[in-house]
Amino acid sequence: MNLEMLFDLLQAIGLFWVNPLLYMAILIAIYLGYRRVKKERQSFHIRILNGWSELRNSLWAGLGLSLIMSVIMIAAGVVLAPSLLFVLIIVTLVAMLSFVFHLLSPAVLFAVTVVLMLVLDMTETSFQIFGTTIAGMEWLDEAIPPFVITAGLFVIIEAVLIRRYGPRFATPRMEQTKRGMQAAAYLSKQLWILPMIVLIPGDVIPSFVPYWPQFTLGETAFSFVCFPFIIGFQQVTRKTLPVYFYPKLAKVVLPMGVLLVVGGIVGFFAPAVSFIVLMIGALCRIFIAVQFKLQERNDVYVVAPTTKGAMIIAVLPDSPAEKMGLVAGEMIKRVNGQDVFNERQLYEALQINAAHCKLEVLDYQKELRLTQHVIHSDDHHSIGLILAK
């Protein structure tokens, strides 16, 4: 029985590779990397991250979390209705093509899916996909609660991913302030592919994939399917450094996921509660995105040119600057005992000592610290810093 179950899971993973969501997400991730690198070269004449970073992050960042979630869902016996998954595919594709990644929050995607099913019910409309009839809300009592639980678990994963990868992939872009200066804003725009093995009731999969393995519990047949759920995220920060901004945003998003999970569980006893909680969750997620956007619209930039030192906009990965522990938002006051205020003065001061450099840096908390690094032959030409001008 264990070997048979393992064989079923392997075949379920095989179906993952024919889902259009996967390939659309991969293409969009590649495009995100291409567009980011293009803008970085236009603004700074150098790319900060490799152009394939977005794709690698999309494929690997959430893999472990989705596998853990698969085990939890299967162990708990959470079953998802095929009609909901088919409509979710359509909703996710439209949201991805809009490139408004606020719509790719699980709370929003799952809520829109349920609303569309409700519209089908009210208009008495139906259609077929792969032999499955998509029509209305007759499955409300049984299908909505596990769907809301799934949405809640994905919102929790969304919060974890925002906290972990939001700052890492926040790329600077130059904006003109009201005073005519060039200051830096940071955009984190990401797409995560989460392959999750789900249980599908009935004979939907075998109806269009002959000999698809099934198992039965009682009188109901179930199939394993590996489904590529998509989570998208975008948010700009100006007056708060990314390293502080995105964890703060994640901290606000996390309780909403817990609320959805609780609402889904309660929904097994009162199905209407699940529907209401899901709608509230979607509205709250949109409100959070708008609220954080408005908070960062003020003409106050944490990273902007200053007469007090050389302000760091970005640090290139694997560079001498990164090895010295320098981060965006810090201000370099002195290099090898010389005051510096711009990039030219910085590199001139670096050449004073051909073997070793000492930097005095003012961090985000306005505390002065010292850092030093051994300089190799050409490091002073490529220390790895992008400074405000």
Summarize the structure in words:
There is one protein chain. This protein is an alpha+beta fold. It folds into two domains: 2-295, no CATH class; 310-387, PDZ domain (Pdz3 Domain, Roll). Helix content is 49%, strand content 21%. The chain is built from twelve helices and twelve strands. The protein has helices at residues 2-16, 20-44, 53-60, 63-75, 82-98, 106-122, 140-165, 204-208, 242-267, 271-295, 320-323, 343-350, and strands at 127-129, 132-134, 171-176, 182-201, 215-217, 220-237, 310-315, 331-335, 338-339, 356-362, 368-374, 385-387. The strands form three sheets. Strands 7, 8, 9, 10, 11 and 12 form a six-stranded antiparallel sheet that branches. A hairpin with a 2-residue loop joins β8 and β9. α2 runs antiparallel to α3, α7 (140-165) runs parallel beside α10 and α9 (242-267) runs antiparallel to α10. It is elongated. The termini are far apart.
